[in-house]
Amino acid sequence: MFEQRLVALSNDRDRRAEEAVRAQERFNVALAEMSRMQTRLLASEDSRKELETGIDVIQNTLRRTIKERDTARGEVARIAAQLSEQGTPHTEAGRVQDALATLDIMAGTLKSTAQQRDEMENEVAKAEAETDAIARAKKELELRNDAIFAQLEEAVTVSVEPLNKMFSAAGLDPEGLLKQVRRGYSGQGGPLTPIVSTKGGPLSEDEARANGILDTLDRMNMYRLAAFKAPFANPVPSGRYRFTSGFGGRNDPKGAGWRRHEGIDFAGAYGTGIHSTADGVVTKAGWQNGYGRAVEIRHEFGLSTLYAHMSEIHVKVGQRVSRGDRIGDMGNSGRSTGTHLHYEVHVGGRPVNPMTYIKAASDVF
To answer: Going from the N-terminus, what domains does the chain have, and what CATH number goes with each?
Structure first.
């Protein structure tokens, strides 16, 4: 049941990580779409302002033309009255005809100007309608983005919190671990880079939220790397064992009285596989006094693990191993009363209770 619980929690963590990645992709698409719509909205606003300016010019021209037309009509009426009183000399008739022709031209120009004004008013109405539609679409996009942000923030928070608790429960400083991991993974193409303002100014609320999510995702990725470098795994992942002795003091099984026990014992079948609980380098692999056939592995963060009483050893000194690699088989070598694995965890050279690490990881892996 413990193994099934570990597998289920691991699968749930992976699903949450995949959901976060998919949500990040949807967020990128939505952000790009919002940028395009903002560009269209600005272009539409500029067009509307240009149309309004054009309408003002046309209206001013129309007012001036109407005033000139009224003045010309008054002048024609005055000349016609003078002609009716004094006769109609040839020169005056020509002047009147010229005035009438000019009036016709101005009336035609006035009609054309009025048509242009009406067309531009229609264009302004269309531009305003398009602006309103773009504004509504932008609002809907902002609401969708807010929902995406909320899902992403919830997903990364739920994923990171158990990792924080796991390292803290094991007595490790999470911030110090993250700094060490970042130093080891500082090559190009590493953690997600933050979003910067497209306008060169302060970040918008969405950009700030996106940076927060990216920071948390980067932290979660660093935690994942750190978890594989610390002994949070079970050295007998098959689950076919029972605990026969815990960490601390106990009566010596050989009858030597009360003695300190610096590890925990897993009793199981002869030849049961023993696996490395973290990434590291083998520093000892062979016969050790009291431990029989034993393997010692050096890990990051000043940690090391020891696996004793093996029947077979499958690694050699200097070999680099990964978490989960089979390093030997359970046996009864050395000072032992039966087939079992004696497992120790050391921090800075001092033994600590291995169950602290196994229990801390129970809600994560």
So the answer is: 2-162 (1.10.287.1490), 241-360 (2.70.70.10)
The answer to whether the CB of 217 falls within 8 A of the CB of 20 is yes
φ, ψ at 252 (rounded to 5°): -60, 130
87 backbone dihedrals φ, ψ, rounded to 5°: 100, 180
Q: Is 300 helix (H, G, I), strand (E, B) or coil?
A: coil
Q: Could you tell me if 342 and 263 are in contact, meaning their C-beta atoms sit under 8 angstroms apart?
A: yes
pTM above 0.70, yes or no: no
13: number of Cβ within 10 Å: 19
Which residue is listed with tokens 């070999």? 319
Cross-strand pairs, 268: 241
pLDDT digits (tens, 9 = 90+) for 227-250: 788 898 899 998 889 988 888 765
Buried-exposed string 308-325: b where 16+ CB fall within 10 A, e elsewhere = bbbbebbbeeeeebebee
Q: 268-284: per-residue pLDDT in tens?
A: 999 999 999 999 999 99
